[in-house]
Amino acid sequence: MMTRRRMTMAGCCALALALGATACGGGPVSAGGGSKEFGGQTLSVAGVWSGAEQKNFQKVLDAFTEKTGAKTQYVSTGDNVSTVVGSKIEGGNAPDVVMVPQVGVLQQFAKKNWLTPLSATTQKAVGANYAPVWKEYGSVGGKLYGLYFKAAHKSTVWYSPEAFEQAGVKPPKTYEEMLRTAQAVSDSGLPAFAVAGEDGWTLTDWFENVYLSQAGPEKYDRLAKHEIPWTDATVVKALTTLGKLFADKKLIAGGQKGALSTDFPGSVEKVFGPEPEAGMVYEGDFVAGVAKDQFGRKIGEEARFFPFPAVTGGKAPVVSGGDAAVVLKDGRNQKAATAFLEFLATPEAAAVWARAGGFLSPNKKLDLASYGDDTLRETAKSLITAGDSVRFDMSDQAPAAFGGTKGMGEWKILQDFLRDPSDPAATAARLEAAAAKAYKG
């Protein structure tokens, strides 16, 4: 399915250095492409990925095995990474590496003294190949613990070109235009949006894009740190803006009730499945992977995106998420774990998954030609060129009890808001109460 790309001489040197191999003037790399110094060892890696994402990450693990000889064992944690990893540590069965999907969880792990700081080699690669914002999100107390291997561009709205053609509309430039476009799509006989309300995290992403554009990055940063309360007027304003969309049953496939029973893959299916039920779905670049892998859509032709539009005079937002690799102190194979993160910091490791699809890398040294299609290249370029104007998913920066747990905190409160968006101020008060408790804890 995937062919290995011949490395450049510079890339070979970087990879050999990262893995402790000798090459490029210091002696040839072995026929297998690495030193095999970890032969006979098994590296345990935990992460949230399952399905197609797990399959593609396995290709990265296999590339590490080819370089070092280390066998790998992947364990999917599901959404509750903190709980699963904590129980494994307590049970004396800690993984060596965890792919952490939330800044708040990374901070929690560091404060519990579960993590080992990144090696000097990895830190040097982060300094050279990543925008400073990624180092900031991977650091706690001035120490760098997390290497962001996989990123998500969460400011993309995906649409069916056929639905837009039928409605006689083009991709909008502003949020207000998007609502008018949605009305035109709805008037043409197809609900405008599939909303994945069953998954609370998608609703936090909706809020964050509106809030970042409307309130600006300074307020966004302060709210993410809970330096201003969720009852702030900017929050109520953003909820009011979002509520206008959520309240219009004609614009949402199945209305609020239908949205609340639709999970993320289901929302993509409603737009790009065999029997379309909506014209658009908002979520990150990973929508393309589902549309392509599960429903056979040609990305760029049958499935396209436009940037999440600017809201009421603000700038177009660039919200990102990501999975950071961390090394656990209680893991049994510290040296292999360290070498694995040094490998993940190279553009060669990122290229393995980039060619497979459904992946973006924050590593600016990754050749954009590594991505399999023009749409992925476009989203990757947008993420890289945004630099430090990127803002990390706000809910992922919060304590897990507020921003990252099913049936609790922000996820649950925004689901209730989708069900009844008539009182934004009351929703803001509930959010503040939950946030105050979680941040205090």
Description:
By secondary structure, the protein is of the alpha/beta class. The chain has two domains: 9-145 and 321-389, Periplasmic binding protein-like II (D-Maltodextrin-Binding Protein, domain 2, 3-Layer(aba) Sandwich); 156-318 and 396-440, Periplasmic binding protein-like II (D-Maltodextrin-Binding Protein, domain 2, 3-Layer(aba) Sandwich). The chain contains 21 helices and 13 strands. The chain has helices spanning 9-19, 51-68, 81-90, 103-111, 120-129, 132-137, 161-167, 175-187, 200-215, 217-224, 233-247, 255-260, 264-272, 287-293, 334-344, 347-356, 374-386, 394-397, 400-403, 409-419, 424-440, and strands spanning 42-47, 71-76, 97-100, 115-116, 139-140, 143-144, 147-153, 156-159, 193-194, 280-282, 304-307, 319-328, 391-392. Strands 1, 2, 3, 4, 7, 12 and 13 form a seven-stranded mixed sheet that branches. α2 (51-68) packs antiparallel against α16 (347-356) and α7 crosses α8 (175-187). It is globular and about 65 Å long. The N and C termini lie far apart (47 Å).
How is this fold's topology laid out?
Layout: H1 9-19, E1 42-47, H2 51-68, E2 71-76, H3 81-90, E3 97-100, H4 103-111, E4 115-116, H5 120-129, H6 132-137, E5 139-140, E6 143-144, E7 147-153, E8 156-159, H7 161-167, H8 175-187, E9 193-194, H9 200-215, H10 217-224, H11 233-247, H12 255-260, H13 264-272, E10 280-282, H14 287-293, E11 304-307, E12 319-328, H15 334-344, H16 347-356, H17 374-386, E13 391-392, H18 394-397, H19 400-403, H20 409-419, H21 424-440
Parallel strand pairs: 1-2, 1-3, 9-10, 12-13
Antiparallel strand pairs: 3-12, 4-12, 5-6, 7-12, 8-10, 8-11
